[in-house]
UniProtKB/TrEMBL annotation, chain A:
Residues 145-347 form the Glucose-methanol-choline oxidoreductase N-terminal domain. Belongs to the GMC oxidoreductase family. It comes from Novacetimonas pomaceti. GO terms for molecular function: flavin adenine dinucleotide binding; oxidoreductase activity, acting on CH-OH group of donors. Coiled coil: none annotated. PANTHER family: LONG-CHAIN-ALCOHOL OXIDASE (PTHR46056:SF12). Residues 455-573 form the Glucose-methanol-choline oxidoreductase C-terminal domain. This is GMC family oxidoreductase. InterPro entries: FAD-dep_OxRdtase_2_FAD-bd, FAD/NAD-bd_sf, GMC_OxRdtase_N, GMC_OxRtase_C. Pfam families: FAD_binding_2, GMC_oxred_C, GMC_oxred_N. Gene3D superfamilies: FAD/NAD(P)-binding domain (3.50.50.60).
Length: 594, 231, 447
């Protein structure tokens, strides 16, 4: 298939989600002519979020209206290297997005800054517990960038997203009732924290009684109408509960579509091409320079878009796959323990526990917001002494009631031991829906030598290219961490005067199950760092081997974290863009010399 | 456009909407009336007579009528499933269906070559064949208690319908039954919003600004659907 | 291309004001084209002559009138399909007197009774712009379908003679005495190119505007008859239904962004802002605001609007016993709030909104039925869409909710009936047939 060569542009951006939209905005501000390629359709609140038709749980959460079209492309998954990986044929464990806005359109809105210690986790663990504390086979690494360096970019992202939250410390001064473990900020949140829903209110009280330090979760669901620095406007969140899986009809959940693209679309330097499925980044004969990008359009025609600078900013695993398909960076070989692309693939270690309250308390689980809630960080990051516990990593604990809707409630059913259908199920369902609440342990997942991404030898996508293969399972360290933290949930449940509690712990020997939704927070695989032997990208997210390629996304995380990734991805995008603008565009070449 | 993943074809969709707009035209009447516990008139588009009987019988056991609310048939669940067969979802177009199809451990997920509509076709035929062989009658004609036992065996994977383990078919049926009963009535089930009123789900109002912090006050407003039907 | 012109114009505009009529023609053609483009914005030519999604000024926008459908013409410089063959004198005669090149009289959907006041300099700049700054489009517009005998244009000649000011009369009106130059400039823009009265002034038996300038008396801009189901409100100083509670800053911001704390633009005004006022200079918008604020109330006004918290309290407590209250919380309250305050400037308030309290409920009924789009402007890049509820609510339900809105939060306007709603539903079905269906995807904002 011969590709038609298009007129060259300065920058091509692959993917129309948060990372791509931030990079495109920054590059047009720097005077660059930018083409954004998005493989899915164009999307807008006017269409995808139109009330009342969009308030449809079946379409949003069960027919995956805003998500990746698996019929064209998916991944294969296995638990270990001895198994044959099989295709992920139906959406379940994780839900990658597609279309303009990407995951940034269907996300919930939880918007954290990365804990400072998580950015230097290897150094921190060695400093506190000694090198031997790191389990065999765990590839613990630092990011190569510090919180202080990223702070202005966390701040920028919060202002663009219209993030609601309660600060704790600003410029070293305690200013509010926010998270006592959170680092100092240069500015307050642009909006005050969202109100607590009833369950979060009860959880806040109980967590305090249990001796923990609850705080309002920072949320990119606006607590009031808001105009961001680009002039884009948001409505206020009204706790409708249709965040995750939906375009927010109130324009109150931050998305590239609402917060950045209205401005970008008006910019003559910016061009968006939808239904443009990128096949590969084109390389010159030296394999050290990208010359552009080849993609297929809706009609099956193939085009090559030449560009001076290529920004790969699709979803985490698409970025890794595109690097592998294009020959950017050395593919990871777990046996030889060499190569970097595919290395340190991580997930997130989430379990949800249930608490039943007395029947005179209505928990109104349908009221909710994707990013809001109450959390405590006493067992997250390095906020507690791991020495006697013997594991690395931690987990925030929270009530993040995002709006439990009817189908989800029916499928969850009643308390443990209740049948899944019939009259007993009905009784359990009604009791549970009206009087229970959910508490998550939202833990980190560490990176291991034998957990990785590569190309599948068997299955192909609709364009004849190999699918990405995931080799993933839960490890002893992460299971022990989860069980320790879930026991702390038990302490809170006792303080809530619970009638019944179901503590959901990760079990030893139970493999990763692709059939049950866990989270879409996948990370790593093309990580940032200071050593090209253990990272695919330098600390500016520039490909070590191909300096005119930058790869922006959660793929850059060297290991998992307890927090949701979007805040960090956005900050990394602004961080990378800043250095491209300040340094790279003036003198294209490696931003880190070895 | 991508909007209509779950919306059935125009013809069948109009059947549902004709009913819905009749409700809109007389607001309050349906809301306050008590629907008789009988199936809505629906001529199945996908299922044949034998399949339709099975589907009605099985759904009515998965969600039986009782003091809490009507059964799945009165809720229009079989109609919902029938309409879903005529969608990209029903035809398997939302799934990765590329060869080869290789069996593997259950935790690596679905690996059969069958779309949902095919799972129903084969699963129902297999279940009826099993009942005929072991009970001397097809499923729909068994007493309710025996139907429950057969469904329990299916759920536990104690049968196989050719290459389809019975629990796989059962999960398909159960999840679609829950979807039909609890989804917006625009999709053909949840007639009269009765599943929502049973659990206290407000539906498509999607605004709780006044209620988010009225702690201890039970949310008092009834349900409303996408078409504007209220209960 | 056009963006560049606007910037060039804004940079060189200071001093271009009331005295433009006496100014020398610009030597630099680009500056002249830019000046003409500015006049085209001030005269809002694009709102009628540009169909969404089509080439600028290629015409084709349908006006559904009781006598039939007329379409705006192609005014690109194409010699056959457009106005390329017009001399400047012919152009000026068409714009200001409504006489086509062949001598026929234009339908007064073209606001030449207002344009009659435009200065020679402005008409010249406009001519240069249309001839040299607009790309020719060779596609002719479909003919009007007005049935005989109304299709005969000769009665229009009589109409024109009776209702369109002559050059002398118009000149005198423009040169009448004003307290200050800003007021004079504002009057010129509003009464002349801006043709605000075409919608906002009531019309007489022959469809003529009952007043063409502020000097003609208090009917001028006192609120017009429904256009496409939208009811233009009074732009005079009434405290409830006019601009009495608006500051000059509010008016400037509204004309620039379509959104202020009191209200948001909808209906035809969104096009007027999008094609017209958002492109105007701060100085000119201030002049318009200053002039509008000089217009006293048309009629002795009832007491000023005062917020009444009772409705909000009842809804907040879950009391939906008032007629229309349930429909309000099911359909409206998410954005406009149970307290009626909305979330300005994202979602406009209903409490105290002049449109809501207007004697005519037509606009309110129409917006509930069809929804509306608040378009992005240069300074407000976000668009917001209100969905239409025609499919979700029957006539009685709409009547109940509209009456509820008109009688809550101190609004105290008359209730409406199901037959009022039915009439608006019929008229909007007629006016949205065809053109909006085709244009709606092009109109759909993308945020």
């Amino acid at each position: 298939m011969d590709a038609t060569r298009l007129k060259p542009v300065d920058v091509v951006v692959i993917g129309g989600g948060w990372a791509g939209s931030i990079m495109a905005k920054e590059m047009t501000e720097a005077g660059q002519k930018v083409v954004m390629l998005e493989r899915g359709p164009d999307r807008s609140t006017a269409v995808e979020g139109a009330y009342p038709g969009s308030i449809d749980e079946l379409e949003g959460n069960y027919r995956y209206r805003l998500f990746q079209d698996l019929s064209k492309s998916t991944v294969t998954i296995r638990n270990n290297m001895r198994q044959r990986a099989l295709p992920y044929r139906r959406m379940a464990a994780f839900l990658p997005g597609e279309g303009v806005g990407g995951a940034g359109l269907h996300w919930s809105g939880v918007h954290f800054r990365m804990p400072p210690d998580d950015l230097i986790l290897r150094s921190k663990v060695i400093e506190r517990y000694g090198k031997s504390f790191i389990p065999e086979g765990m590839n613990l690494q630092d990011y190569g960038v510090t919180y202080d360096e990223l702070e202005p970019f966390f701040d920028r992202a919060e202002k663009v997203f219209g993030t609601s939250g309660e600060p704790y410390m600003i410029n070293g001064q305690v200013v509010g009732k926010g998270n006592v473990f959170s680092p100092s900020r240069s500015q307050p949140f642009p909006l005050p924290a969202l109100k607590d829903v009833h369950t979060a209110h009860l959880f806040r009280k109980a967590a305090t009684e249990a001796g923990f330090h609850p705080y309002s979760m920072p949320a990119a669901n606006a607590s009031a109408q808001y105009t961001n620095p680009y002039g884009a406007q948001m409505g206020p969140c009204n706790f409708c509960g249709y965040c995750s899986g939906y375009a927010c009809y109130m324009y109150s959940k931050a998305s590239p579509n609402v917060n950045i693209l209205p401005v970008l679309r008006r910019d003559p330097l910016f061009e968006l091409r939808t239904h443009a499925h990128v096949l590969r980044v084109e390389m010159d004969s030296t394999k050290t320079r990208a010359t552009g990008v080849t993609y297929v359009d809706r009609e099956g025609r193939t085009w090559t878009q030449p560009a001076e600078l290529v920004i790969i900013s699709a979803f985490q695993f698409h970025n890794v796959r595109l690097m592998l398909l294009s020959g950017i960076g050395k593919p990871y070989d777990p046996v030889a323990n060499e190569g970097v692309v595919g290395r340190n693939f991580v997930y997130q270690n989430v379990t949800t526990s249930f608490v039943w309250l007395n029947r005179n308390i209505e928990t109104e689980q349908f009221i909710g917001t994707g990013g809001g809630g109450v959390a405590f960080d006493d067992f997250n990051s390095e906020n507690f002494d791991h020495g006697p516990l013997g594991f690395v990593g931690g987990s925030p604990v929270w009530v993040n009631q995002a709006g439990v809707k009817a189908i989800a409630a029916a499928q969850a059913g009643g308390p443990p031991g209740t049948p899944r259908w019939g009259s007993a199920w009905k009784k359990g369902l009604v009791d549970t829906y009206r009087h229970s609440l959910r508490i998550d342990a939202h833990g980190a997942n560490m990176a291991y030598r034998d957990v990785f991404l590569d190309l599948d030898p068997t299955w192909k996508d609709a364009y004849g290219l190999p699918l990405l293969r995931m080799t993933f399972d839960w490890k002893d360290n992460d299971i022990r961490m989860n069980r320790y933290v879930v026991d702390r949930i038990g302490e809170v449940a006792r303080a809530m005067d619970a009638r019944q509690v179901q503590l959901t712990r990760r079990e030893f020997g139970v493999p990763f199950d692709t059939r049950k939704y866990q989270t879409t927070h996948l990370g790593g695989g093309a990580v940032m760092g200071t050593d090209p032997a253990t990272s695919a990208l330098n600390r500016y997210l520039q490909a070590w081997d191909v300096p005119n390629v930058f790869v922006i996304g959660a793929n850059a995380f060297p290991q998992g974290t307890g927090y949701n990734p979007t805040g960090m991805v956005a900050a990394l995008a602004y961080w990378s863009a800043y250095h491209i603008r300040q340094t790279y565009l003036k003198n294209p070449g490696p931003l880190v010399s070895l | 456009m991508s909007r209509s993943h779950a919306v059935p074809s125009r013809r069948t969709f109009m059947q549902v909407m004709a009913g819905a707009s009749a409700l809109v035209a007389t607001p309050g009447v349906v809301a306050r009336g008590h629907a008789a516990s009988s199936a809505p008139p629906h001529a199945p588009v996908f299922f044949n007579d034998a399949e339709w009987k099975f589907l009605n019988a099985a759904c009515a056991r998965l969600i039986p009528g009782d003091a809490l609310g009507p059964d799945a048939v009165a809720l229009g669940v079989p109609r919902f499933i029938d309409l879903q067969m005529d969608t990209p979802y029903g035809r398997g177009q939302l799934w990765y269906m590329h060869e080869p199809f290789v069996a593997g451990p259950a935790n690596l997920g679905y690996q059969l070559p069958h779309a949902p509509c095919e799972l129903y076709r084969r699963g129902i035929a297999g279940a009826n064949a099993w009942c005929l062989q072991h009970e001397g009658s097809d499923f729909a004609n068994l007493p309710a208690a025996r139907q429950d036992e057969v469904l329990t065996m299916m759920e536990k994977g104690e049968m196989a319908f050719d290459d389809i383990p019975s629990d796989m078919f059962f999960e398909q049926l159960l999840s679609n039954t829950m979807e039909g009963a609890f989804a917006d009535p625009v999709h053909g089930g949840n007639i009269g919003l009765k599943s929502w009123t049973m659990i206290g789900f407000p539906g498509a109002r999607a605004d709780f600004m006044d209620w988010v912090d009225q702690y201890g006050v039970a949310y008092p407003l009834g349900s409303v659907s996408i078409s504007g039907e209220t209960a | 291309m056009r963006g560049g012109h606007v910037i060039a114009l804004l940079a060189g505009l200071s001093g271009w004001g009331l005295h433009a009529a006496c100014a020398e023609p610009a030597r630099d053609e680009r500056a002249e084209i830019a000046a003409g483009e500015y006049v085209a914005h001030a005269a809002d030519c694009g709102a009628c002559h540009t169909l969404p999604g089509h080439a600028p000024f290629s015409g084709g926008l349908a006006f559904h009138l009781p006598m039939g459908t007329i379409r705006s013409t192609n005014i690109t410089p194409d010699p056959k399909a457009g106005i390329g063959g017009y001399s400047e004198a012919e152009f000026a005669r068409a714009v200001r007197q409504g006489i086509r090149r062949d001598g026929a009289t234009l339908y007064p959907a073209m606001p030449y009774p207002s344009y009659a006041r435009m200065t020679d300099a402005d008409v010249h700049a406009l001519y240069v712009y249309f001839m040299k700054g607009v790309a020719p489009v060779a596609i002719p517009v479909a003919p009007n379908d007005i049935v005989w005998p109304l299709s005969m244009r000769w009665p229009l000649v009589a109409w024109r003679m009776m209702f369109v000011p002559s050059r002398d009369q118009a000149g005198q009106q423009v040169r009448r005495a004003f307290a200050d130059p800003q007021l004079a400039r504002g009057a010129y823009l509003v009464e002349g190119p801006g043709h605000c009265g075409a919608c906002h002034t009531p019309r007489g038996i022959a469809m003529q505007e009952k007043a063409l300038t502020a000097a003609d008396g208090p009917l001028f801009l006192s609120g017009g008859g429904a256009v496409d189901g939208w009811n233009p409100v009074s732009l005079r100083g009434e405290a409830r239904v006019g601009l009495g509670r608006w500051s000059e800053d509010d008016i400037v911001t509204f004309l620039r962004t379509g959104r202020v704390t009191h209200a948001a633009a909808f209906g035809g005004m969104t096009d007027a802002i999008r094609h017209g006022t958002q492109h105007m200079t701060e100085e000119d918008l201030r002049a318009i605001a200053h002039y509008l604020k000089s217009l006293p109330p048309a009629r002795a006004e009832q007491a000023t609007w005062r917020y009444d918290a009772a409705t909000g309290r009842a809804l907040h407590a879950g009391d939906l016993s008032a007629r229309g209250a349930r429909a309000y919380v099911d359909n409206c309250a998410a954005c406009h709030r149970t307290d009626g305050h909305g979330y300005p400037t994202t979602f406009p308030p209903l409490a105290g909104n002049p449109v809501v309290m207007d004697a005519s409920a037509t606009s309110l009924i129409r917006i509930v039925l069809t929804g509306s789009v608040l378009h992005a402007t240069h300074q407000a890049p976000s668009s917001f869409v209100m969905p239409g509820f025609a499919a979700r609510m029957d006539d009685q339900a709409v009547a109940d909710v509209v009456s509820f809105i008109r009688q809550s939060w101190g609004n105290a306007a008359q209730p409406v009936s199901a037959s009022d709603v039915a009439a608006v539903r019929r008229s909007t079905q007629a006016s949205t047939q065809g053109q909006e269906g085709a244009a709606s995807s092009a109109r759909q904002p993308m945020n």
